[in-house]
Amino acid sequence: MVGKSTASKRKPGSAGDTRRESPAEAPPAETTAAVAAAVRDARKGQQRLLNIFSDAFAAVLAQDSFSTILQEIKQALYHRDFATAFGSEDYLEAYAARWSPTRALCYAAVFRGIKSHLDGILVDERETAQPHDGTQEEPGREDCTESDASAPSGRLRMLSFGGCAAEHVAFGSYLREAACHGTLTLVDSAPWSHTETLIQQQLTSPPPLSKYASAAARANNKAFLRASQLQFTFSQADALSLDRARLLELVGTQPLVVTLMFTLNELYTDGGIGKTTKFLRLLGEVLPDATLLLVVDSPGSYSEAAVGKEKKKYPMQWLLNHTLLGTETTGYTWEGLESEDSIWFRLPEGLDYPIQLENMRYQMHLYRIHKPKS
């Protein structure tokens, strides 16, 4: 856990691990120093992501009713009453403040781990049209093709089904590290628009400073991202209700990364295997060649769906592979790129957040779609 007064227990191999090697196994001093510096830099980056959440939801976190609201959300989720759990802005902001920070850090690590694949779908800025929804850059913002050598180059497009604050912040983190522009479309049945606007403001505006901050601190106070670096759109819709025409609008004509983060198992469980399979196949039909599909979800028995009258349970990964890799399709094929059944994401010591956060465990699967050249 991480919080104001509680730090996470040190785990072997974690950023907070301080185990010493025996003298015979000790690495060179310069290697040790380099590793220590990398750990410090990683922790600093993670802290900046947590600050985005604590700044965006400072009023929510400070409310006396915050704990009560969290219990009400938990109760609604326990009864699978999603209309209540995600039905109001107060609940959505509380949910984002409580559960999204750890996931954002985790997703940022996932994106970092698949960077070589993401690099392969960067779009040349000169070939990038306006976003599919018709939104424009605000007047006066930096042009994506500016000549500044430090300016980001290339554009990465991401479409997140079930996406909200965690995906938003993690994607922004990746754009910053990779020095590229990004276009993000979040699709969810809950009304996340206001919450995501708060997140976008925190990502693209200098963080708040104390009125006692020095002139030097004010001069160096920069936004996490350039104002033009991340364009985002939120669309309130049930993924399983989207028809072919709407999916085509969402995915566009250039390769992108599509994410289902802690979403696919809910689609299987609540929407049904038939509808979810239909959605995945329709998605395959409309996606541009070379598009990546990234699935992250709970591991093991936490991600199972019942089939048939006998309610026989099948792992989510088996159902996904059966749909993408085990069924003949016309016009496209899927390639499995990476797959992990169970990974721990552990929070390092030293991170600061107003409330306690926990480590998390997840499974991850990455696919690429192939379509014949026209």
UniProtKB/TrEMBL annotation:
* Chain segments carrying region Disordered: 1-31, 126-151
Q: Where is the composition biased (Basic and acidic residues)?
A: 126-144
Do you know which InterPro entries this protein is assigned to?
A: Methyltransf_34
Q: Which gene encodes it?
A: BMT6
Q: What is this protein called?
A: 5-oxoprolinase
